[in-house]
Amino acid sequence: MLIDSQPAIVVPRVSVIIPTYNAGSDFGGLLERLQQQTLAPHEIIVVDSSSTDGTAERSQRAGVRVFSILQSEFDHGGTRNYAAGLAEGDVLVFMTQDAIPDNDFMLEELVKPFQDGKISCVYGRQLARPDANVLERLSRGFNYPEQSSVKDQGDIPRMGIKTFFCSNVCAAVRKDIFLELGRFPEPVIFNEDLFFAAKCILQGYTVAYAAEARVVHSHDYTLIQQFRRFFDNGVSMRNNDWVFQYSAVGKEGSRLVKTQLNALHRQRKWHWMPRLFAESAAKLFGYQLGKRYRSLPQGLCIRFSMHRKIWDKLNATAAAKGKGMSI
């Protein structure tokens, strides 16, 4: 489907939206960096899931808008939709509590592509933290290259599901298009950003990757955490299985592993290869189990999941739709 371009947004009012839970003392630094941007945010909205470490109070002292919800009310799509409904800006910037702008013009670079009226959303580049291990650095480099790009329907035959890749760690979306296309799915355990980007592209809009909009963000997951994260990934894909027709996730995972193996060989870091194989197995096993979660017992699904508090919501939604779930 083709759409006409929307009017370009040249100087947008930016609403930054950050869901939080026990964000820690460093969170104040993120808010400060955002307030120092060359493109000043119109507002910063924090939706806090009843933190016990003073995150909400710290945010209030920083002068941002703070809204509190119960931990049981959080989900990756619904909570962001709630915040978007409160936002006054014409561009919504979604960030996570552990992503730090790499410079003072991150927001400016993130929204610059909206000068093209066909661009619906933009995601920024993630740089690994200085203490990140080599596998995490290689993963960030694979998913977030140095060159900016724009993706549209024409890329689907070549890129498959990677065409829809987008990350709410640092992403901007035009609010008018966000509302037009029905916002993020909810409840959703994972991949709300990918599913929305897919809707944009399938409706004829484009998605931009802004390599100059940089944030520092990475993780040091254990093997168990990798398994749980990819279990949730599989669950989200099963609940939105219309995306399967575009590509198998495993193909993209294989390309990442090959890239990491080649880099480890070039860097003579062979001692990391067993860890790479173990991580890859944990991810694949978790993902495949997640896709089959409806055949698993209730307790096992919750034990396998990284986001355990959302399962009551998933169950209620599935029951309302008449789909059989295991919980």
UniProtKB/TrEMBL annotation:
Pfam families: Glycos_transf_2. Residues 15-181 form the Glycosyltransferase 2-like domain. This is Rhamnosyltransferase. PANTHER family: GLYCOSYLTRANSFERASE (PTHR43685), O ANTIGEN BIOSYNTHESIS RHAMNOSYLTRANSFERASE RFBN (PTHR43685:SF13). It comes from Paenibacillus nasutitermitis. The gene is rfbN. Gene3D superfamilies: Spore Coat Polysaccharide Biosynthesis Protein SpsA, Chain A. SUPFAM superfamilies: Nucleotide-diphospho-sugar transferases. One of its GO terms (biological process) is single-species biofilm formation.
